[in-house]
Design a protein that fits this description.
TIM Barrel; globular; alpha/beta; eight-stranded parallel sheet; two-stranded antiparallel sheet
């Protein structure tokens, strides 16, 4: 069984705090994840005009939505420091660009892949620009129709890419996860397929591997009660450790499907059968 690539999605759960981001990197490294992932935006481009001046209550006081988005956005100084910190902790990092400016920004670093979030797989200019980088592209399929996924795959064809089945509700209802879609994606597109989960449960993410997922992505947090829209559907440190352990145990237990007497059974066989 291929080793599962585990991505710990920090996203913006750091709330603009480099110290919190480092703690989350520590958690992911300790748990044995392969990579952590952030989200990169140019708020001036990403925030819709009608939302920019909407007032919002935040931990830093009442401010416009645009001011809030700038407040939680890391710049070059923070990313330079996180790049160095991830190397010290022995873990890779990447980020989801939400606009062309952010994609250009990320190309200043030696990231192992570009993750296009579900919301952006219909953004043709961004998808085309991401493919032109020559980097591996991973997309999520949340809230997307079959035709929208088809169009995204047409853009990525010929390059190195993977597709993650996803439900974009935070948290996602168990009865809407539709994990069988993992098999559908593998059969339809013939590419590497994974699962990006936003549900409360851990077992569903482990189960996704039975269905053919070889990449698992889950949001992580230090505490689900922290400020932020993604915190509640994220996995806390102990949960992440359990999730990674469960995935690695499944990999060992999966086997090749061939029926045989195992080495540990031979003595038992001799004792009980002579």
């Amino acid at each position: 069984m291929k080793k599962t690539y585990i991505i710990a999605e920090i996203g913006i759960n750091h709330n603009g705090s480099l110290q919190t981001a480092k703690k989350l990197i520590d958690v992911a490294s300790l748990a044995g994840c392969d990579a952590v992932k952030f989200q990169k935006r140019n708020p001036d481009v990403c925030v819709p005009e009608h939302q920019k001046s909407v007032m919002r209550d935040t931990p830093w006081g009442r401010m416009t939505y645009l001011e809030y988005k700038h407040k939680v956005e890391f710049g070059k100084g923070e990313y330079d420091e996180m790049d160095i910190y991830c190397k010290k902790r022995g873990i890779k990092w990447s980020a989801s660009p939400w606009d062309l400016d952010s994609l250009d920004f990320l190309m200043e670093y030696n990231i192992p892949f570009i993750k296009i979030p579900s919301a952006m797989i219909t953004n043709k200019p961004l998808m085309l620009a991401a493919k032109k980088t020559g980097k591996r592209i991973i997309i999520s399929t949340g809230m997307s129709t079959q035709d929208e996924i088809d169009d995204a795959i047409k853009i990525l064809k010929g390059g190195d890419f993977a597709v993650l089945h996803c439900n974009s509700t935070y948290p996602a209802p168990i009865d809407e996860l539709n994990l069988s879609s993992i098999k559908t994606l593998k059969e339809k597109y013939g590419c590497e397929v994974g699962y990006s989960g936003h549900e409360f449960r851990l077992g569903t993410s482990v189960s996704a591997i039975y269905l053919g997922a070889s990449i698992i992505e889950r949001h992580i947090t230090l505490d689900r009660t922290m400020w932020g829209t993604d915190q509640l559907s994220s996995v806390e440190p102990q949960g992440l450790i359990k999730l990674v352990k469960g995935i690695r145990e499944l990999e060992k237990a999966y086997g090749d499907g061939l029926l045989r007497v195992t080495d540990s059974e031979k003595l038992v066989r001799k004792k009980l059968r002579g």
